[in-house]
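User: I'm designing a mutation panel for Catalase and want to avoid disrupting the core. Could you give me a predicted structure to guide residue selection? Please restate the sequence first so the numbering is unambiguous.

Assistant: Good idea. Sequence first, for numbering, then the predicted structure tokens:
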Amino acid sequence: MSTSSDRRDTDPGGADDKQRQLDDVRLDLTGTELTTDQGVRIDHTDDALTVGERGPTLLEDFHAREKITHFDHERIPERVVHARGAGAYGVFQPYDDWLAEYTVAEFLTNPAVRTPTFVRFSTVAGSRGSADTVRDVRGFATKFYTRQGNYDLVGNNMPVFFIQDGIKFPDFVHAVKPEPHNEIPQAQSAHDTFWDFVSLQPESLHMIMWLMSDRALPRSYRMMQGFGVHTFRLVNAEGRGTFVKFHWKPVLGVHSLVWDECQKIGGKDPDYNRRDLWEAIETGQFPEYELGVQLVPESDEFAFDFDLLDSTKIIPEEQVPVRPVGRMTLNRNPDNFFAETEQVAFHTANVVPGIDFTNDPLLQARNFSYLDTQLIRLGGPNFPQIPVNRPVAPVTNNQRDGYHQSFIHKGRTSYFKNSLGGGCPALAAPGAEVFSHYQEKVEGHKIRKRSESFKDFYSQATLFWNSMTEPEKKHIVAAFRFELGHVDHKHVRQAVVDQLNHVDHNLAVMVANGVGVNPPEREVTPNHGRSSPALSQITMSLGGTVSPATRKVAILVAEGVDGVGVRTLVEQLRERGTMPELLAPHDGAVRTADGEELPVDRAINTMASVLYDGVVVPCGPDSVRMLASDGYAVHFVAEAFKHHKPVAAFGAGIDLLDQPWASVKLARDDESVVVDQGVVTSSAARGDLPTEFADAFCEALARHRAWDRSTDGVPA
């Protein structure tokens, strides 16, 4: 009789055999050479095959296609990137017809045309189950259902990207995603593989500056800019081309959270941005965005100190202003998240007559990748028939069958040319309604090489840093310290700091001192000193017209509150477009100083200051004493103060703000309204609240934060 060990040696289904099978498929790639899936060795994987250094990418580049195709199919059925999203329907309408000089795209040039849209906002790195408020790039993708066909403007909330060539996209995403050995961390860039990639790809530094800034922490999708990222081309009726950059600007202004808020909101309400968008539309506070364009004549293609085809670069607005084209209003929530928001499919190559591509190597790869991705994610070639993807323009072609075919095609012909079907569908007559590719002469050798004009990796990263205000610079340094502080390998931390020294020496020193590596001893690249005020959110919020509309305000109440004053304030705040809520130590209602019942919206301990844009403490001595004895309420006010949010109080409510950490001027005795560092107070009580109080508070809300406020010593 054989022993158990004998059986393991001879039984093909035994444990040892299974272990050998597992050992055979465990690959240690250390010390090996890069190959294709067919075993062909590769000596270059940073640039796709193009016609000359600035020419179009070639379809015959089997390495790039294989690499991107495999990457496109890595997630089933979740999106590889932009997995977590929120969507809404809307309408776009141009202001006038001035853009007709540059394009035949009707939806951009005819002010009588209202084009339906669907917008999907998203985070990039995390899974569908991750939180909304992580530090990440946000997607801002818009589908225009135009009479001439669907046009997709597939953008982000940052105008640049990490890489210059799409062949690197799988590498970048693999680096930023959870590390493969333990699937950690989720929805974070604070780990070794991402920063190892960054340290070795200096072209990413401009985008990294944006990612470490407040732009990566939007207050709301309704207060977030959008950018087309690439340089596209508009084409007019004469066939003349004009380079174009697309911009979305929110009517409510551009505002962000702070990092401490993001971490706390992730626990309090991981659906914070989703919920905000949904509730705003449900209550009729429709988000609005202005579409603008930067136009560059083709004769000026080489007039800049950077390459227009480089997606890691912006055109500073001071050089080429953004000209307004029209406005989009999001006015309807989806009926079913999966059927619409999850199944919507965007593609950079979905263009209409009057809009065309450039030879941007990242855009060229996206034009291949998106269609390839949808084929696997949505189960075959008929995904355009899904209602949310279906164009309003008629679809008549000879594409047939396949998975999920929902059309019932009649007739016996499905080919061109034909006589049995009367020659239908027939070719369209030439003209403005037909898409005609822009005619551009292309010639050159087939090479894997990027133009020298793409080699400036640092100057625009420096431009971004120089354009920030002091609070924004402080946040960027803190972000680098947090992110690199989670990197285990010190040589990676050091390498990133060494790269930052090319951006700004002081920035590199401040980051190094926070992450325990050697600060650079000398400046290697002098700071050029140029700035672009349009890049600073704080600078933008200080100029122009701002509005407090849709800002959420917490009004803290307890037994004995000044009911007349609270009702007056609520009415005044609603008249100014804000969304006040009454929070008390318990849910239900509180009894006012007049003995009346005042309904409460929520209990304080179910909410947090980080979920509101401002806080008010009303009059009522008994109410204030009760709130002062409630640690949660005191923390609520202190935390809002620490986060530089507008804080207000009137009458006895001022006592709750009269704290050593609140070193601001407060109203006393008969002072009507006092405003100091975003803190608004009034000595008025018992319903005598002046309208100036609400005016001043709403003005502070519209400014979003009081960055001049000192928050040292705040116990929050």
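For picking mutation sites, this is relevant: The chain has 21 helices and 21 strands. The first helix runs from residue 4 to 10.
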